[in-house]
Design goal:
The complex is a heterodimer of chains A (480) and B (185). In chain A, 69% of the residues lie in helices and 0% in strands. In chain A, helix 6 packs antiparallel against helix 16, helix 7 packs across helix 8 and helix 13 runs antiparallel to helix 15. The N terminus of chain A is likely disordered. Chain A is mainly alpha-helical. Chain B has two domains: 100 residues, Alpha-Beta Plaits (2-Layer Sandwich); 69 residues, no CATH class. Chain B is built from five helices and four strands; from the N terminus they run E-H-E-H-H-H-E-H-E. In chain B, helix 3 packs antiparallel against helix 4. The longest helix of chain B is centred in the middle third of the chain and has 27 residues. Chain B starts with 10 loop residues before the first strand and ends with a strand. Classes of the chains: A mainly alpha (480), B alpha+beta (185). At the A-B interface, helix 2, helix 7, helix 9, helix 17 and helix 18 of A face helix 1, strand 2, helix 2, helix 3 and helix 4 of B.
């Protein structure tokens, strides 16, 4: 043990002998180049395609606003859900968006704790994606309560009726889990932004941007007496967010798992949901980042290595999800509960939604298996197509879980076929508009890559780098 | 900010630029050994090992966070036990309304523990950094502004008891500063 340690002392961690480790930033870019490239996105005019995407996004977002106004003024009956399918697209979309919102905190927290330095160039954008996805998600349960103006009843505050919430209900746990997740993600994201906002402040020429960036940078001076608290805060938040990110989708899965509906009442749900969320979240990160890196010339910072790592995570979590699908089927057979067996029989063989099941299975389990091959991981077109399959598949997963289980409830007299109304469809498209719109605004106004963190992972950023370099050269000379 | 325009009365201190992280690191070790107190290094990213080079200890932010976590844990448990057992017991799904219903309270307890720890981290951090702060004498220096791009800056304040106008300047030159500027209040 001691030998390996001393042997490692004379090589820099990024250049361990025998291990060819790709640099995280290609082409030996300098600190100034990183600043210019990242801040340039905010300071220069946006490319034409930004507008091409932004205008339809705003149009779709207005559709969302319209459907919400229509929903509130008419009643929640404008949605297609009814007994027994009381949880239709609304909850499908809620779980879909909240799942997407998992990759950001995973990248920023779990990969931080495990010292995965490649996270630095993708964490900012994925955290932003997380926040936006959670906002999109929050719309659905908020309006699903029926009377939106009564939503404050979810909060445990003393009221005139002296009524208190039922803290034993998973739905209330969900309120706490999702709102905590959102708040902590905002804090994490904002603390990470402070040094970069200071960079934008110092570079800003015009008065209004300088004022706004200066206001939000809080007077950051980058002193080491600040950095040491800052780094501790970042570490602590990562440590707090790691169990949090695992808990949120577990709690979401409790909404289903603690019920007695066949097809929902399974103990495998929490880990299965968490793996699915990470899977779908990484797919969405890649869906967004592949065009962004191309469009803004960020290939030196978001390299093929980053894409490769993320596709490997997609392969791993996709396979876990596939295992969960098969294990669900096995347990329903092995458990010999006839309602459970029937629910899955309906789901995969005889029911009206079998097409959705096979669509989900193909997109989530089969399509990512192509990532076993290196050529597939390094061909960005293949990656882009597969991650979009995953996006579709993860939506179908929630669809398969929710309507197919309750459309065939305990009373056969109630059985029916649930299909969404135009309001639900337009709302779903509307949340995509909102997602795109907010993400494009994020690119426009905030640094899309955490510049201060990327600067820190350059080999030259280590104050001991020259000493290591000298030692290495000396050793090479003595060897030859 | 030319040297002559700053009188010793309104001198905030010296801003010195170093070529790279390595130079700054070794300079910081010398300033630390020189016994200065009111000084800092300003870098675009947290330089690994700089705490040691400056002779700084571990940040005590974790103590704030522990308090936040304990507060969140206790508030959540109190809120749930008090409302569910004595104030407004809800009998649903044949679940008990006494202490045996504890497991159902774990998720909210966990979430509130994390939530208040998170708030403690944010506000503890701002408190320890004494931020937000609208202005600072250092912002008068154009050399200082490079810290947020690619500059490695050291600042020695005039308030430091060891600070001597001429001597400190020579000292900064000795330890390898490539550019030195005086900053006024």
């Amino acid at each position: 043990m001691a030998d390996t340690n001393t042997a490692k002392m004379d090589v820099h961690p990024t250049e361990v002998e025998g291990v060819v480790r790709e640099p995280l930033v290609l082409n030996n870019r300098s600190l100034g180049w990183i600043t210019d490239r990242i801040c340039g996105i905010v300071e220069n005019r946006q490319p034409f395609i930004w507008w091409v995407l932004f205008v339809p996004a705003v149009a779709l977002f207005s559709c969302l606003l319209f459907t919400l106004v229509y929903l509130v003024s008419t009643g929640v009956g404008v949605w297609g859900n009814n007994q027994p399918v009381a949880w239709g697209w609304a909850i499908v979309n809620f779980v879909f968006w909240i799942g997407i919102g998992h990759a950001g905190t995973l990248i920023s927290a779990i990969l931080f704790l495990t010292r995965q330095k490649w996270r630095t160039s993708v964490n900012r954008a994925s955290e932003a994606m997380t926040l936006i996805a959670v906002m999109c998600a929050g719309i659905y349960p908020g309006f699903h309560v029926g009377r939106f103006w009564m939503v404050w009843f979810l909060a445990p505050i003393p009221n005139a009726n002296a009524i208190w919430q039922n803290f034993k209900s998973p739905l209330l746990w969900d309120v706490f889990a999702v709102s905590t997740y959102f708040t902590i993600s905002v804090i994490f994201w904002y603390i990470g932004l402070i040094p970069d906002l200071a960079t934008l402040r110092d570079r800003a020429k015009k008065k209004v941007p300088k004022f706004l960036y200066g206001f939000f940078a809080l007077g950051w001076r980058g002193g080491n007496r600040h950095w040491r608290h800052y780094e501790m805060a970042y570490l602590l938040l990562a440590a707090l967010s790691t169990p949090l990110v695992l808990s949120v989708h577990s709690v979401v899965s409790f909404d289903f798992a603690t019920s007695i509906v066949p097809g929902w009442h399974t103990t495998i749900f929490p880990p299965y949901f968490v793996a699915g969320a990470v899977f779908g979240g990484f797919a969405m990160v890649l869906t967004l980042m592949l065009p962004v890196r191309k469009l803004y010339g960020l290939e030196d910072m978001i390299t093929h290595k980053h894409v490769d790592n993320m596709t490997k995570i997609i392969l791993l979590t996709g396979t876990i999800v596939g295992y969960a699908y098969i294990m669900e089927l096995f347990i329903s057979y092995y458990g010999a509960n006839k309602y459970e067996t029937d629910a899955f029989h309906i789901r995969i063989l005889s029911g009206p939604y079998t097409w959705a099941y096979y669509c989900m299975f193909f997109c989530n389990v089969i399509s990512p298996q192509i990532f076993w091959f290196k050529w597939a991981r390094s061909n960005l077109w293949v990656v882009f197509i597969v991650v979009n399959f995953v996006n579709i598949g993860m939506w179908f997963e929630r669809f398969v879980i929710i309507p197919t289980s309750i459309a065939r409830d305990f009373l056969p007299g109630q059985w029916g076929y649930y299909s969404p109304s135009w309001v639900e469809k337009l709302m779903f498209l509307g949340t995509f508009g909102m997602f795109m719109m907010l993400f494009l605004l994020f690119i426009r106004f905030l640094p899309v890559i955490a510049a201060s963190e990327v600067k820190g992972v350059l080999p030259e950023s280590d104050p001991h780098y020259p000493e290591w370099k000298k030692l290495r050269e000396k050793r090479r000379r003595s060897e030859s | 900010m030319s040297d002559s325009s700053v009188s010793s009365k309104n001198l905030f201190g010296y801003v010195a630029e170093f070529a790279n992280a390595t130079d700054l690191y070794h300079a910081a070790e010398k300033v630390r050994d020189g016994g200065f107190n009111r000084w800092d290094v300003h870098t675009p990213y947290p330089v690994h090992g700089m705490d040691h080079a400056m002779g700084l200890g571990k940040s005590w932010l974790s103590a704030f966070v522990l308090c936040g976590g304990v507060a969140g844990f206790s508030i959540a448990l109190f809120m749930q036990l008090f409302t569910q057992i004595s104030l407004y017991p809800t009998i649903v799904q044949d679940k008990p309304t006494n202490l045996f219903t504890m497991p159902a309270f774990f998720p909210v307890t966990f979430e509130l523990t994390i939530l208040l720890s998170g708030f403690a981290t944010l506000f503890g951090l701002l408190g320890l950094m004494m931020l937000p702060r609208w202005n600072h004498p250092l912002f008068n220096s154009s050399l200082f502004q490079k810290f947020s791009d690619d500059g490695f800056i050291m600042v020695i304040e005039a308030r430091d008891p060891k600070f001597k106008r001429e001597r400190t300047r020579e000292f900064l030159e000795e330890i390898g500063a490539s550019k030195i500027e005086e900053v006024a209040y």
